Amino acid sequence: NAMLQWQRTGFHFQPEKNWMNDPNGPVYYKGWYHLFYQYNPDSAIWGNKIAWGHAASRDLVRWRHLPVAMSPDQWYDINGVWSGSATVLPDGRIVMLYTGSTNASVQVQCLAFPTDPSDPLLINWTKYENNPVMYPPPGVGEKDFRDPTTAWFDGSDDTWRLIIGSKDDRHAGMVMTYKTKDFMEYELVHGLLHQVPGTGMWECIDLYPVGGVRGIDMTDAVAASSTNGGDDVLHVMKESSDDDRHDYYALGRYDGAKNTWTPLDSDADVGVGLRYDWGKFYASKTFYDPAKKRRVLWGWVGETDSERADVAKGWASLQSIPRTVVLDTKTGSNLLQWPVQEVETLRTNSTDLGRVTIDHGSVFPLSLHRATQLDGGLRTHFCHDETRSSRANDIVKRVVGNTVPVLNGEDLSVRVLVDHSIVESFAMEGRSTVTSRVYPTEAIYANAGVYLFNNATGAQVTATSLVVHEMDSSYNQAYMASM
Ligand code: DQQ
After folding, report:
1. pTM here?
2. Which residue has the CA at smallest separation from atom 11 of ligand 1?
3. Residue 22 bears catalytic tag
4. What positions does the domain Glycosyl hydrolase family 32 N-terminal occupy (predicted)?
C-alpha cells in the first residue's frame, strides 16, 4: 500500500519488507558490524517459521541487506530459529548460539558457525551436526528455556560461561548458568545466578560489565576481578519481561565463583525497577565493539498500529538507533544510553535557535526545510504525548515517560530523534529514554513541522539552548561490495 510508505524510516534499520522482531547475534567481524534479526520472510506478522535476517554495516548507520542467514530447516529448529548471541573466540572465530523450537515445540539451544570465516560479510552459516547442544534441564518447562547470551571466558576453571533465562513453576523469573570448554558439551552450573519472584518468563537476558577500568568486555572484567578484586566493576543484568513486554535492568555485582549476581539496590531489582526505555522497546541485546571499545545496545521497536495496517504496508517493526551504554558516574545508580556517534554523520542543515522563551498558552513554529527526519536537543521541560500523534483509530496512543534525575547544578536536557514513524528521546544525556511509534494522518513529508508549545496556565518557559539538525537518509547512500 503506497499510501503508507511514508512510514518507512530514513535512518533506523528495517528490512526491505515483512516482519522483524528481536536483534540477534550482533558482532563486529573483519571491519563489519553484523546485525541478525528475527525475521518472517513470508509475511508482515510473526509466525512459526521465523528465520535469521541479516545485514552488515561499516558504521552502524548505513546498512547493506544480506540473504537470510539461517532458516528453520532441521527437526530441532523447524518451528523457528529463535533468538541468540555471538561469541568471538580469542583467535577471532565466531560461535553462534541460538534457540531452536523443535518439531515438538521444545526449546533447545543450537550451535552454528560461519561457513567461510574468510568472508567478512559472513553470508553463509553452517549448523553444527550434533545439534541441539542443550535441552531444558529437569524442572524447567519445555517452552521456558530460550535466548542464550554471549559467552565469556572464566580463567578460574578455563571454561566459557553463558546464561539462559527461564521461570520457575511459581512464576519467578530466573537465570541459569552453563559452562563449556568447547561449545559442544555443556554443564549446568549448580544453583541459580539470579531469581526474582513474580516476574514471569525472562526472555533475552543480558549480562555485562560497566564502570570499571576494564569494564566493558565481559571476559576482561572477569579476568580483572580475579586479579584485583574488581570492586570498581558493576554488572548490568537485563531481562525482557514476557508478562508486560518491557526491558528491565539493574546494576549489581557478579561473582563467578559463587555463581551469583546481586543487585546494588534490592528494591530496584531486575523486573521491578529501571527500564531501558519507557516507551516501545523490547528484546534488546548489547555487544562489545572492539573497534571503538564501547558497548552498544540494540532494541526491537515494534508497531503500535493494527496487524491489518502492517499487512497492508507489507512490513512491521524497526530497530532502535544503536545506543552506547555506560554507567552514569554522577548518580551511580543508572545507565546512560546515547545514539552512537556515527548517527551524527547524517546531520545536514543545522539550525541553532539560541534562547527561546514561550509564553503560556502559545505555540512557536520552527522554520525547517524538512521535519520528518531530525536530531535535536533543547533544555526545558519535555513531554512524550502520543495522544496527539494521530487521528487514526486503530493504534495505541499513550502518554509514556518516567522521572529522570536532575542533580544540583544541572539543567534539564533532552535529545529527540525523529524519523517518519518513530520518535526516540534521550533525557539528561541518556539517563532515561522514551521511544514511540507515531502514525500521523496529515503531518507527513512536507506537511510535517516542529513546534514548541507551552501549555502551562501561568508560567513562561525558556529553552536556554535549542539546536535542530535535519537528517539525511542512510539508505540514499548506496553501499558497494568493495567498501
Ligand atoms: N522472540 C524470540 C524468542 C524470544 C522472543 C522468538 C522475544 O527467542 O524469547 O521470535 O521477543
Report:
1. 0.95
2. 283
3. yes
4. 12-339
